[in-house]
Design goal:
binds pyridoxal-5'-phosphate, 16% strand, 2 domains, 437 residues, nine-stranded mixed β-sheet
Amino acid sequence: MSDNVKEISREKSAALYAKAQTFFPGGVNSPVRAFKSVYGTPLFIKKGDGAYLWDADDNQFIDFCGSWGPLILGHNHPAVREKVMEVMQNGMSFGAPTALENELAELILGNNPFIEKIRFTSSGTEAVMSAIRLARGYTKRDKILKFEGCYHGHTDSLLVKAGSGLVTFGETSSAGVPKSFADETIVIALNDKEALAQAFEDFKDQIATVIIEPVPANNGLLLQHKEFLQYLREICTANGTLLIFDEVISGFRVSFTGAAGLYQIQPDIITYGKIIGGGLPVGAYGASAQIMSNVSPEGPVYQAGTLSGNPVAMAAGIAQISELLKPGFYEDLSAKTEAFVNDITTFVNERNYPVNLTRIGSIFWFAFDTKETIRKAEDIDPQSMSKFKQMHFELLNRGVYFGPSGYEVGFVSAAHTTDLLNQAKQAIFDSLEVIFG
Ligand SMILES: *Cc1c(COP(=O)(O)O)cnc(C)c1O
């Protein structure tokens, strides 16, 4: 750290964290929040507004975490806040249908040619779990195939990583997942057509579904070639296997219609989460009317939820999705992010720093110790994360908040003005100079 930059105070956060550790395992309610991969005590946040966050010690940050993706309009957007407050006047949950569910569904289905019917859940994990069950029920097959480096929430059968060998059964990546579950999950590398073809040969007529993040953004930003995704579409069709695009992070982010729209590829089932709830807990899965007719009570695939379609959460979704439908929304957001990322790329290239940035729409990622575009998980060097760790520390001290792990992507929101992005850029330049200069 250079002489004129002071380390931020974490006194109040540290006290809150100490107390939290008496309540929660690791002091948190979701693991990455514990700052295990970066320096210092986790910051306890007390307020967010626009592109800014404030922590318990009153440090102010330009935020690029955006609650891990949902806040595409920034924090505390007036349209979302006002709609939620209006709806809350009438009570918070009824366990009965409301017009708000129709309203959100109409906004989505009326502007998305890739799905005809939708079902709301309360999280991305739940949406994915339900989509997998639907695919299995529909195909009457048990096996599923996933890709190493794609995250699909914490459903048992998806907490599975690649074993050794080219085409393998997965190994559980969490204690508590029965081996017999992992045995139903095949795990292969991204961006590898041969491995995919081999898996379909080895498990002929057994694979119910292939699930992929079409824009893998939970383990770095591992952009796939459109051609690979097209091949995946074709091989699934040829084998009677349903293709699930897990668009919990890319949906409403890389375009209104997500990666399906961006790449113009029709999956069989799409899952959503994050942005769809405007910052409240909402997930969803959608498909053709024919596939969705298999879901209970119309069909035999059971799925339910006490708070599914909750009116307050629907209200937040309606307000946020309505903003996204305004003309030029994605073009503006993308252009701002592109300029921001290009300037940083120019900076690191001129100085020959071993940093490579990738971007799609308003998502970006810093890879260290490489100049290559990384497309599969195994090509990320774990050692390179020490550089991210340093950058994270330097950035916090300069008023910029990134998610506390080098495997996480950054998000630009509509609230990030060009002016704020220029400020953040300068902080990034100064931090990189401390690390590499
Ligand atoms: C965040 C995420 C999930 C899990 O969603 P939760 O709401 O955290 O349960 C699943 N899939 C993808 C692609 C995600 O980014």
